[in-house]
């Protein structure tokens, strides 16, 4: 990754942290690396400090909940050999207690490596700033999947009261990129899970977003997985589906109670197609399971053990 790209990615987080340089000028005006010092010896919050790991609690706003165990083990081995290169960032909450702002993966790996102290930047931040910092750092990770990015974007909008343009400035992305990620959250849950688990790519997801009908989205998604379709083939299938004549629906039924809507959604996820429950005031009704082709019908019948 080029220096220019790294600087662009770090723009939002640096602005929030208001970092001071991690180098100090010597008498010859040459830069030298700052040496970590015990917290008790530090007056400034802009320095690198050695903090006891036992005094650090994890960030309650951390958007990432899963960490690759093998990657943690590899990082831990590197830390044992070379030490921790990049300090974590914490905020001080009391005389001997700190709360992690960013760097949970480094903190976990340091614990695995058996470290008792860790270099850290000490910052002052309120809860909203902590959330924003954690989200921005998370978004800037190269190995973050598209759904994790989208969820982080949505959290920043909802919980940090940011508009899309402001969000784009924070993470150094244009508004259209932010919008494309947010649109992923409109896909059916099973498709979002597939994207999260790298069963389909961002390109596949964009092709699916061109289809408005969730039932068609689920069918195309099922075909992508079953036949290992490339993005180009998925786009061709989308065009075929869009050209097919659609039946105009009549008057829509009134909204179902929450419990029935939950059943309807669970059935739709199970059969990978749009399912409709119809219930009258006497409690009688029917279940409709539409299909898009003979192959799709065969798939549904097979699931019903027909």
SSE blueprint and pairings:
Layout: H1 3-17, E1 23-25, E2 31-33, E3 37-38, E4 48-52, E5 56-57, H2 69-82, E6 88-94, E7 97-102, H3 104-112, E8 117-123, H4 127-139, H5 146-159, H6 164-171, H7 175-183, H8 189-196, H9 202-209, H10 214-227, H11 231-243, H12 258-271, E9 276-279, E10 285-288, H13 294-303
Parallel strand pairs: 3-4, 5-7, 6-8
Antiparallel strand pairs: 1-2, 4-8, 6-7, 9-10
Helix pairs in contact: 1-4, 2-3, 4-5, 5-7, 6-7, 9-11, 10-11
Domain ParB-like N-terminal: 49-139
Protein name: ParB/RepB/Spo0J family partition protein
GO molecular function, one term: DNA binding
List keywords for this structure.
single chain, 306 residues, alpha/beta, Conserved hypothetical protein from pyrococcus furiosus pfu- 392566-001, ParB domain, six-stranded mixed beta sheet, two-stranded antiparallel ribbon, ParB/Sulfiredoxin_sf, DNA binding
Give a short synopsis of this structure.
It comes from Mucilaginibacter achroorhodeus. With 306 residues, this protein is α/β, with parallel strands linked by helices. 49% of the residues lie in helices and 14% in strands.
């Amino acid at each position: 990754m080029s220096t220019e790209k790294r600087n662009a990615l770090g723009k939002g987080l640096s602005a929030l942290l208001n970092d001071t340089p991690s180098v100090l000028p010597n008498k010859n005006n040459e830069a030298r690396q700052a040496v970590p010092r015990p917290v008790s010896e530090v007056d400034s919050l802009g320095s690198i400090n050695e903090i006891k790991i036992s005094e650090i609690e994890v960030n309650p706003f951390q958007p990432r909940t899963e960490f690759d165990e093998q990657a943690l083990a590899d990082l831990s081995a590197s830390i044992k050999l070379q030490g921790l290169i990049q300090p974590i960032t914490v905020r001080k909450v009391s005389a001997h207690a700190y709360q992690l702002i960013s760097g949970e993966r480094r903190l976990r790996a340091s614990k695995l490596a058996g470290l008792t102290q860790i270099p850290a930047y000490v910052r002052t931040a309120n809860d909203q700033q902590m959330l924003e910092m954690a989200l921005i750092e998370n978004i800037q990770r190269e190995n973050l999947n598209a759904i994790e990015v989208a969820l982080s974007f949505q959290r920043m909008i909802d919980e940090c009261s940011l508009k899309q343009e402001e969000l784009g400035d924070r993470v150094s992305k244009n508004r259209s990129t932010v919008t494309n990620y947010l649109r992923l959250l409109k896909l059916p849950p099973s498709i979002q899970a597939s994207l999260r688990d790298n069963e389909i790519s961002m390109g596949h997801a964009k092709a699916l977003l061109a289809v408005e009908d969730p039932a068609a989205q689920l069918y195309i998604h099922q075909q992508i997985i079953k036949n290992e379709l490339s993005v180009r083939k998925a786009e061709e299938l989308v065009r075929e589906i869009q050209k097919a004549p659609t039946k105009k629906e009549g008057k829509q039924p009134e909204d179902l109670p929450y419990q029935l809507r939950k059943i309807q959604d669970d059935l739709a996820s199970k059969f990978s197609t749009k399912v409709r429950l119809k219930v009258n005031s006497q409690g009688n009704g029917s279940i409709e399971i539409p299909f898009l082709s003979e192959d799709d019908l065969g798939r549904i019948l097979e699931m019903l053990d027909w």
